[in-house]
Please model this.
Amino acid sequence: MTAKACAHIEPPGAPELNVDRVLAMQVYPAEALATCASCGTGYLLELLDMQGDQCAYRVAAVDKTAFAATLKSLDKGSCDIQRGRDEIFNLAAGALRLNRVLISRAGAFNKWVVTAENLPSDSWQELPMDGSWLARLNQ
Ligand SMILES: [Zn+2]
Model:
């Protein structure tokens, strides 16, 4: 598996990502599969923080072939939810975490913030969602 970020998602450009599949919701999407609008490179988005209508997402590039296979498998329906979860887990395990965070406002991707900070690796369900990351990243 090779996971590599494409050149189209470099800040300060506006985030041109299409959400293909929302995997979990927390008012706004908490976990999602998205693709670059220009080249179709796949990304895994995971909620880092949330405050009001703003969300911050961790972004990881995923292997193109594995991404396509996972989407196809999810499209087949929900007859085997566990298998779907396993595929996403495998996809995430081979993903390349990027040193930038995606900020959204009212559900629309707003901007990229590059950060040198170590982002938590915990699942979004384990994170406080208290606006502290947004406050730091939006400075
Ligand atoms: Zn691209």
User: Anything to note?
Assistant: The chain has three helices and six strands. Residues 12 and 71 are 29 Å apart (CA to CA). The chain has one domain: 7-137. The chain has a mean pLDDT of 91.
